[in-house]
Amino acid sequence: MLFPLPFSKLSLSASILSTLLFNAAAQTASSLNCTEFFVPVNISTQTSKLNVTAPSSQAEMTGLITRMTWANSSITNDVNLGTTALNATYKIWSQLCVPDGFGANGTLEFTIHGGTENHTYFSLGKDSPFNYAQAAVQAGHAILTYDNLGAGKSDKPDGIQEVQISTETAVGIALVEQLPSVLKFGKLVGVGHAHGSVIMMQMLAQRGNLFDATVLTSIASSTLGATTGIAAMNLQIASESAPEFHEGLSSAYTVSGGWTSDQTTFYHFPFFDADVLDDLHRGREVMALGMLLTLPENRPALNYTNSVLAVTGDRDYFMCAGNCNVTTNGFDSAPAAVAGLFPAAKDFTTHIPENTGHFLNYHHSAPQTFEFIQNWISGAL
Ligand SMILES: *[C@@H]1O[C@H](CO)[C@@H](O)[C@H](O)[C@H]1NC(C)=O
Ligand SMILES: *[C@@H]1O[C@H](CO)[C@@H](O)[C@H](O)[C@H]1NC(C)=O
Ligand SMILES: *[C@@H]1O[C@H](CO)[C@@H](O)[C@H](O)[C@H]1NC(C)=O
Ligand SMILES: *[C@@H]1O[C@H](CO)[C@@H](O)[C@H](O)[C@H]1NC(C)=O
Ligand SMILES: *[C@@H]1O[C@H](CO)[C@@H](O)[C@H](O)[C@H]1NC(C)=O
Ligand SMILES: *[C@@H]1O[C@H](CO)[C@@H](O)[C@H](O)[C@H]1NC(C)=O
Ligand SMILES: *[C@@H]1O[C@H](CO)[C@@H](O)[C@H](O)[C@H]1NC(C)=O
Ligand SMILES: *[C@@H]1O[C@H](CO)[C@@H](O)[C@H](O)[C@H]1NC(C)=O
Ligand SMILES: *[C@@H]1O[C@H](CO)[C@@H](O)[C@H](O)[C@H]1NC(C)=O
């Protein structure tokens, strides 16, 4: 693992104190029946005390990012001064889309997006073939998307000491625990993308069968591509590089260098629509440094006994350095090797769409991939 962190530093108990409050309910202009709201979550966790301060210049930021990508970088250990307790309340922006006639025994998909993304990763554009939420609703499922802590319209606390994997995991668990007060449903399916899949694996390692089935997209068991991926993102101080969106935000928050950086890291040429890339990334979504500095060690979900599906594009640059068809730990591909982290799962399926990069949902293969995922969910429940 590229950024090893002792497991003990990550362990936490997410004690959930909050009750759900809706404010601002709105119908979107789409054909989907969606409601948007903020969920206040109280979390209690252990974070890493990091000996890093928000960079005072882009040069310092670039120096820090470069240090993360050195061969055998030990930065994660070098800056870690131990753990500290964090009790906090955050406002998390969420969107729930429910199909007509959804019943109390229906299936709800709970999604978590990745870094430099927001909920839009799963719901881009009305009637777009790249809109995962729409595919889920068409399959008769309700779907919850949210902006991760430190992204989109959710709270952006200290980007180094607070927006860390343990906090993101605690927020995910807190949201899952509150779902029954939002919607009556029968089965719950987790759907993660990239860093969202990593968060989800931490949630399952802690809580076992939190989901009745789990779909991990753009995931691999190694971080073959993380070094080149992080370097290629060409991370900038968000408030300086995109002041039109992020003026006043702490310099602990980064944005990718722009269109070319996004293409290199997330897209496999020429199997995507340039206007989709442009639309999605125009908002220059942020990513907190604390997230990159606390990438977790792989930790098996020993108590998870339901089914798992791993879906990763064969040309995923970030996860597989551009070729996921590599034998890994005795498995015939890097995504298949994720099975090693689910020793008690009743079933593990791997699907590798061809000509597809890290942003799985935005390649030409997406409609077939969405269909594959929805069919798999039906079979797994
Ligand atoms: C969550 O934390 C806030 C702020 O500390 C507090 O006002 C609220 O009562 C807490 N919610 C619950 C259910 O304890
Ligand atoms: C924190 O890092 C600085 C170098 O950036 C170092 O001089 C200092 O000793 C470190 N502090 C601790 C407590 O390790
Ligand atoms: C990185 O670690 C590997 C395995 O421990 C070692 O063989 C290699 O020499 C190291 N490379 C550098 C640049 O330190
Ligand atoms: C944090 O919350 C836990 C309960 O979840 C409580 O035991 C602890 O005292 C709290 N710590 C602080 C500093 O408020
Ligand atoms: C829209 O979803 C809400 C639940 O979020 C439900 O109460 C309402 O009946 C749905 N409307 C339609 C037209 O399906
Ligand atoms: C789900 O609930 C509806 C009524 O809400 C019922 O008609 C249907 O048979 C149920 N389906 C299953 C699979 O239990
Ligand atoms: C973030 O969300 C906004 C809408 O809230 C959207 O326009 C933008 O494209 C999103 N950015 C990313 C990278 O997901
Ligand atoms: C798994 O479940 C067992 C039995 O309930 C429990 O003792 C153990 O702590 C759990 N392990 C983890 C990692 O949650
Ligand atoms: C990966 O393997 C599949 C199945 O053999 C193949 O169709 C695809 O082209 C391969 N992709 C790469 C990047 O080698």
Automatic annotation (TrEMBL):
<dbReference type="InterPro" id="IPR000073">
    <property type="entry name" value="AB_hydrolase_1"/>
</dbReference>
<feature type="signal peptide">
    <location>
        <begin position="1"/>
        <end position="26"/>
    </location>
</feature>
<feature type="domain" description="AB hydrolase-1">
    <location>
        <begin position="112"/>
        <end position="363"/>
    </location>
</feature>
<keyword id="KW-0732">Signal</keyword>
<dbReference type="Pfam" id="PF12697">
    <property type="entry name" value="Abhydrolase_6"/>
</dbReference>
<protein>
    <recommendedName>
        <fullName>AB hydrolase-1 domain-containing protein</fullName>
    </recommendedName>
</protein>
<dbReference type="InterPro" id="IPR029058">
    <property type="entry name" value="AB_hydrolase_fold"/>
</dbReference>
